[in-house]
């Protein structure tokens, strides 16, 4: 048996038996991880039996998004936001188009209370935006919460209490009946205070915290009781917000729980069914999407998913997931970098470079096969837009590896393809064309990609478009080689060319410029046969490419000049100089 490496002495390489029923292709062994300490979800909470319909549904419109960055997200920060940072975040959320915003937990700190008061007296809240304030089920905290919203035209008061068995037993010391009585008392107090707030239209929200770990019949009993107590009606609906406070199961089970509530809640047309997924299993986005399929109408989360532990569900990802399916997200994400920078400034937390839609590298390809597909896809998109008579930014999008057009969220195409040692000829050619107007012949692309790979392998660093141009000119233009062009002119009998080699000039004449150059080179002792030639206009003149056989060796060269004819001659001369330097076309032996 092969010895196990001890390079990581703190790790215990699995050495248990291979399961008897494991297929031959799976040699994984039992680990020493104490998995027996944990119970599967179906042993921790009752999963309601339903004839589920949500798998057959589609999301065809955005739910009501409710950002909780200023409350739940703020509570998760090592350095909670002060009023200026809170106001900056609030203004961003308003500018993006959010219509219901959880603005704070007024009884939790003086900062939160003062910020809610700031919103109430400053006129910062637009007429179509409703602030939400959060409170625990205690009368003194509820009263402080109502004091904070005095003077606001409208507000939602969000009451929460943990309802799951472990929380009842360990944290609250209440049985089901005792906890239900505590919730009813708090909700009744909220109703009395709401009637006494002059000039403020108050609606109610309830969160049975850790809903996903609570018995379904108990949650239903509590929520339906509050629907009646708060006298919910279609013109004054209550919000029942059902959090996956700590993810414990696969997203399909959360969807089953939501569909059960969706079907059994009383006065369903007077209830807004809301969800608040966290991301402990890394499936918060999936939980939210499946919950909407199952009947949820409102989703609470944070921009870029900030929140305690692994975070709240990410509203940016959710909204742009809909956008990528052709559904209006109902919020503006057209400058993703401004949004991200503002969130980073307010939270003092970085957004990961691979974060969906918003990270620095999410529209960037380093892999050669990806780059080639993207480059071809972008070219095809431009042609298709032209054929339809549409602007490129209005044409239907279908580009490999890019689920949305980066330009739709304010990104440029400059960073879509970047080059390192993993990159290929397609991406390198794309950057040379986009940034420098060089349209390399296909055979030359493959050869130059090896030049780039050698350079990036040696440096271990990324090659910028400027680096690529420098490498290309150094490898193929060779302006200062052993043979130089002295003159190329047209006369009555054709073209006349003179070249200088080792201090001696030689001349030649031909019907075409390249024929005259070949004659001059032959006179200097160099036999040249042109195999392929092409070129195109470029900024300041022309670029030409030539593949020649020089003394039996096939080799590429390139030339740049204000005059296309001279550029062609320089390309042939560059091929000659490369051959004299011992370089050759490594794609052909012919």
Automatic annotation (TrEMBL):
Question: What reaction(s) does this enzyme catalyze?
Answer: 3-methyl-2-oxobutanoate + acetyl-CoA + H2O = (2S)-2-isopropylmalate + CoA + H(+)
Where in or outside the cell it occurs: the entry states:
Cytoplasm
* Positions of the UniProt region annotated as Disordered: 1-25
EC number(s) of the enzyme?
Answer: 2.3.3.13
Q: One Pfam family from the UniProt entry?
A: IPMS_D2
Superkingdom as given in the UniProt entry: Bacteria
Q: Its GO biological process terms?
A: L-leucine biosynthetic process
The record places domain Pyruvate carboxyltransferase at 63-337
Q: Which cofactor does it need?
A: Mg(2+)
Please list the residues that bind Mg(2+): 72, 276, 278, 312
Q: How does it assemble?
A: Homodimer.
Protein name as catalogued:
2-isopropylmalate synthase
**What is the species of this protein?**
Microbispora rosea
């Amino acid at each position: 048996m092969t010895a196990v490496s001890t390079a990581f002495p703190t790790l215990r390489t699995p050495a248990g038996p291979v399961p008897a029923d494991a297929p031959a292709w799976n040699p994984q062994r039992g680990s020493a991880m104490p998995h027996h300490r944990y119970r599967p979800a179906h042993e921790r909470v009752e999963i309601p039996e339903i004839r589920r319909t949500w798998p057959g549904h589609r999301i065809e419109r955005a739910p009501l998004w409710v950002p909780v960055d200023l409350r739940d997200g703020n509570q998760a920060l090592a350095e909670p936001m002060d009023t200026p940072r809170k106001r900056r975040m609030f203004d961003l959320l308003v500018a993006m188009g959010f219509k219901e915003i959880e603005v704070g937990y007024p009884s939790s700190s003086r900062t939160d209370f003062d910020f809610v008061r700031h919103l109430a007296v400053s006129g910062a809240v637009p007429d179509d935006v409703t602030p939400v304030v959060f409170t625990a089920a205690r009368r003194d905290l509820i009263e402080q919460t109502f004091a904070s919203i005095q003077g606001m035209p409208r507000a939602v008061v969000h009451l929460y209490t943990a309802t799951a068995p472990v929380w009842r037993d360990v944290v609250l010391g209440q049985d089901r009946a005792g906890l239900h009585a505590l919730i009813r008392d708090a909700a009744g107090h909220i109703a009395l205070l709401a009637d006494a707030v002059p000039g403020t239209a108050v609606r109610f929200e309830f969160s049975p915290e850790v809903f996903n770990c609570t018995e379904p019949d108990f949650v239903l009993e509590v929520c339906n009781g509050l629907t009646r107590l708060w006298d919910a009606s279609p013109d004054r609906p209550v919000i029942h917000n059902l959090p996956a406070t700590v993810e414990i199961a696969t997203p399909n089970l959360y969807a089953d729980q939501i569909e059960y509530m969706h079907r059994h809640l009383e006065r369903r047309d007077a209830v807004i069914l809301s969800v608040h997924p966290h991301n402990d299993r890394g499936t918060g986005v999936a939980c939210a999407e499946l919950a909407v399929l199952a009947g949820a109408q409102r989703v609470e989360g944070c921009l870029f998913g900030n929140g305690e532990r692994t975070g709240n569900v990410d509203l940016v990802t959710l909204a742009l997931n809909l956008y990528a399916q052709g559904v209006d997200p109902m919020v503006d994400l057209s400058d993703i970098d401004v949004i991200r920078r503002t969130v980073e400034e307010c939270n003092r937390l970085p957004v990961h470079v691979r974060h969906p839609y918003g990270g620095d590298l999410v529209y960037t390809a380093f892999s050669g096969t990806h780059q080639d597909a993207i480059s071809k896809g972008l070219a095809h998109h431009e042609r298709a837009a032209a054929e339809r008579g549409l602007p490129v930014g209005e044409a239907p999008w279908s580009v490999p590896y890019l689920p949305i057009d980066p330009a739709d969220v304010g990104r440029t195409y400059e960073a879509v393809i970047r080059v390192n040692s993993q990159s290929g000829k397609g991406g390198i050619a794309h950057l040379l064309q986009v940034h420098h107007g060089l349209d390399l012949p296909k055979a030359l692309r493959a050869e130059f990609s090896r030049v780039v790979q050698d350079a990036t392998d040696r440096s271990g660093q990324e090659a910028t478009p400027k680096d690529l141009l420098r490498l290309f000119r150094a490898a193929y233009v060779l302006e200062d080689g052993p043979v130089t062009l002295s003159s190329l002119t047209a006369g009555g009998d054709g073209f006349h060319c003179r070249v200088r080699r080792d201090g001696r000039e030689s001349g030649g004449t031909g019907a075409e410029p390249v024929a005259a150059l070949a004659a001059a080179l032959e006179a200097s002792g160099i036999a040249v046969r042109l195999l392929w030639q092409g070129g195109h206009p470029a900024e300041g003149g022309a670029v030409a490419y030539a593949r020649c056989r020089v003394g039996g060796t096939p080799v590429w060269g390139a030339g740049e000049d204000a005059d296309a004819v001279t550029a062609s001659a320089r390309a042939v001369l560059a091929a000659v100089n490369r051959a004299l330097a011992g370089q050759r076309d490594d794609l052909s032996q012919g």
